[in-house]
Amino acid sequence: MSTLKSKVFIKLEIETKITKIIQGLNAGTDPLVVSMCGAADLGKSFLSDKIARQLNNMGISTGHLTLDSFLMKREERIKKGISGYQPDAYDLKSIENHITNFKNQKSIKFFPYDHSSGEKSQEKITIGSCKVLIVDGLHSMHKKIRKNTSLSLFVYTDDDKLRKIRLKADIFKRKQTVELSKKLEPVEFEKYKNFVEPYKKQADFLLNLKEKWRYELERGG
Q: In a designed cystine with 41, which of 24, 114, 116, 169 is the match (CB 3.0 to 4.6 A)?
């Protein structure tokens, strides 16, 4: 593992720092799985994409798999009373199979999730055989995934900021009404606390969101 100080304040170059950590793990021959976990709407997918681009530019073939692609349709979740923060909302077996295929150097295919419609996109994405797979999502540190993970990162922020970010995302990103979003916010926050935040204690590194795209990198454990 990289010899980082216990805390380093980083601005937009956070993806470069994480890329260097992954580089340090890339000495072996086995494919690496990197988990980007944490609360919704804190930049996990954006960071994962930037890290993947940097690694590819450095000649380290990297794919980016978002777990939202295995999320139950919103309409179905509502009918069953299941939150996206709950593991039951995901096809964990399919995720596990995709990661096994990656480890066996096989291509993986999936349909991205569209947050505005609450359904899967019609356009399939294929990730060919590569050296590193970045898996981002609320449950990217679930035990079915973590057993194959070489590095785990958990993105978080203070509770008040997290609740405001989530409320705003529900209105503008998920196209929910203000009334519904305000009604669901405390319920979703409790689900996050129960089902996702516990992963924080298991992470190798923590990314504390101080303000938009500004993180503090900390050692986990």
A: 169
CATH architecture of the domain covering 7-219 = 3-Layer(aba) Sandwich (3.40)
CA–CA separation, 20 vs 117, rounded Å?
36
Whether residue 22 contacts residue 32, with contact meaning beta carbons closer than 8 Å, is answered with yes
Report the chain's terminal Cα–Cα distance, integer Å: 13
Instruction: State whether residue 63 is helix, strand or coil.
Output: strand
Tens of pLDDT along the chain (221 residues) come to 433 434 444 344 899 999 999 998 876 678 999 999 999 899 999 999 999 999 999 999 999 999 999 999 999 998 999 999 999 999 999 999 999 999 999 999 999 998 888 899 989 999 999 999 999 999 999 999 999 999 999 999 999 999 998 888 888 888 888 898 898 899 999 999 999 999 999 999 999 999 887 899 999 97
DSSP tag of 90: B
In the chain, where the domains are located: 7-219
Burial class (CB in 10 A: 0-12, 13-18, 19+), 217: buried
